């Protein structure tokens, strides 16, 4: 079941993201454009050492990207893996794998010593890592292996997320533009007279202009720049939009922005200190 931004259960901000068909992308904005890290070779090299019949567990599976790598490797090499992925958020099914949503990594629904191997791609650090690792140890067979890619506080991805949040907050401010947009479209919905409509429309346009003035050329402002472009289109063509539909779009817009910010913030908060992940 999809959660709204009013649902404070952990994972609400990821459920709609994964349910929409998004895949996990390790992308960093650079002056030359987006740069994406392909972890596929890392995972396929790891899974290649498991024999046919191995039971594998993917923690915080999300879109099932890592589970798909395991299935693809098995298919290519004529093996058969029993692959299970778990996530606190709601997740979509993946061919050749069993994905379970609503599962806390700190309380895995499996008996002891039942998996040969485990994986996690930017996921286990979002949990209570001590409890999650204790659970992982419990469900792994003696001699079982695990490989995890983790966010760390000094990584370029984490620094980018923090910079994007700061840029977003600086541009969006207290959300005046969205409030003014609602007032303008509500006035149209109620067929208010020009003496009410015109000031409401101008207040909306002025709020968007103030947002645009706070944009900077830094790539950290790219997400905020897209939001300003969307609101600028609304402000410039108010009469072209059916008011009830525009108000509904604004609700979706605000909810998706809140979810994006929450995901970015969760990532920066989950990132481990470099010393904790074996970095110098």
Q: What would you say this structure looks like, in words?
A:
β6, α4 (about 130-140) and β7 (about 140-150) form a beta-alpha-beta unit. The chain is elongated, with a radius of gyration of 23 Å. It starts with 11 loop residues before the first helix and ends in a 10-residue tail after the last helix. It has two domains: about 10-150, Rossmann fold, CATH 3.40.50.150; about 155-270. The strands form two sheets. The chain has a five-stranded parallel sheet. Strands 1-2 form a two-stranded antiparallel ribbon. The protein has helices at about 10-20, 40-45, 65-75, 130-140, 155-170, 175-190, 195-215, 220-235, 245-270; strands at about 25-30, 35, 55-60, 80-85, 100, 115-120, 140-150. It is built from nine helices and seven strands. Helix content is about 50%, strand content about 15%. It is α/β, with parallel strands linked by helices and about 280 residues long.
């Amino acid at each position: 079941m999809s959660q709204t931004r009013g649902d404070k259960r952990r994972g609400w901000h990821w459920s709609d993201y994964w349910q929409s068909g998004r895949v996990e992308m390790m992308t960093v904005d650079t002056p030359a454009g987006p740069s994406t890290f392909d972890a596929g070779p890392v995972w396929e090299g790891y899974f290649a050492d498991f024999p046919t019949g191995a039971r594998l567990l993917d923690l915080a599976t999300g879109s099932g990207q890592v589970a798909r790598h395991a299935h693809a490797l098995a298919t290519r090499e004529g093996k058969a893996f029993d692959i299970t992925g778990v996530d606190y958020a709601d997740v979509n099914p993946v061919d050749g794998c069993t994905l379970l949503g609503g599962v806390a990594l700190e309380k895995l629904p499996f008996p002891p010593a039942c998996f040969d191997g485990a994986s996690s791609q930017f996921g286990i650090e979002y949990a209570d890592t001590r409890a999650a690792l204790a659970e992982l140890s419990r469900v792994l067979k003696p001699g079982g292996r695990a490989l995890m890619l983790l966010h760390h506080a000094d990584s370029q991805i984490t620094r980018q997320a923090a910079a994007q949040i700061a840029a977003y907050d600086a541009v969006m401010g207290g959300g005046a533009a969205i409030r003014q947009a609602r007032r303008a479209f509500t006035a149209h919905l109620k067929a208010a007279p020009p003496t009410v409509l015109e000031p409401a429309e101008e207040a909306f346009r002025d709020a968007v202009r103030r947002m645009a003035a706070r944009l900077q050329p830094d790539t950290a402002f790219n997400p905020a720049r897209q939001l300003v472009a969307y609101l600028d289109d609304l402000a410039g063509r108010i009469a072209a939009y059916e008011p009830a539909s525009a108000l509904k779009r604004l609700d979706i817009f605000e909810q998706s922005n809140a979810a994006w910010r929450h995901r970015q913030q969760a990532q920066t908060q989950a990132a481990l200190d470099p010393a904790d992940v074996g970095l110098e």
